[in-house]
Amino acid sequence: MSLRIALCIAVCMAVCTALPAAAALYKWIDENGRVVYGDTPPPGAKAERISVAAPAADPNAVRDMASKDAELKKHQQDRDAEAAKAEKQFADNKAKADRCVQVRGRMQTLRSGAALYRFNEAGEKVYYDAAERDKAIAETDRTLRELNCAPVAGNAPAGTSTY
Predict the structure, then answer these.
(1) Taking the complete model, does pTM exceed 0.90, yes or no?
(2) CA gap 44, 1 in Å, rounded
């Protein structure tokens, strides 16, 4: 007896799930001239019954979706990598520009003729003599060229570069 009840319930469920699929779809034109679709046409409207068939199943649909998904993920990873690369390049360029500003400022200070000094091991001020100043200018000039910085504005002494 329980088998009979189970069979009856299964048949009822199958019929209930098939009913929405068997529902009719109608097409009609309303009083404003617009095409309207619905499951029940209004009374007095000239309605055309439309059969709605489920599209044929594509056996390759799952494979195509997986392929497109993988392609989208790869494209997103490529975009993220490009963004990271551009961000790193921007940071490197900014660091180089900041370094160039510092080195050009040092060059201007060295060429200004102002009294320059450094601190020795004992913490005492030791002023630059002409030879030390020339050596510091040469080192700073070399650093500017290595960094490929723009030349320092201003007048350079004769026989020196404009870096």
Answers:
(1) no
(2) 50
Mean pLDDT of 44-63: 79
In a domain, 23, yes or no: yes
**Amino acid at residue number 58:** D
* CA distance linking residue 69 with residue 52, whole number of Å: 30
In which domain, by residue range, is 108 found? 101-163
According to DSSP, the β-strands at 48-50 and 117-119 are unpaired
- Please tell me the distance from the alpha carbon of residue 98 to that of residue 107, in angstroms, as a whole number: 14
Query: Who wins on pLDDT, 3 or 150?
Result: 150
Distance from C-alpha of 100 to C-alpha of 147, rounded to nearest angstrom: 7
Task: Specify if 96 maps to a domain.
Answer: no
| C-alpha distances out from residue 106 to 3, 75, 159, Å | 97, 46, 19
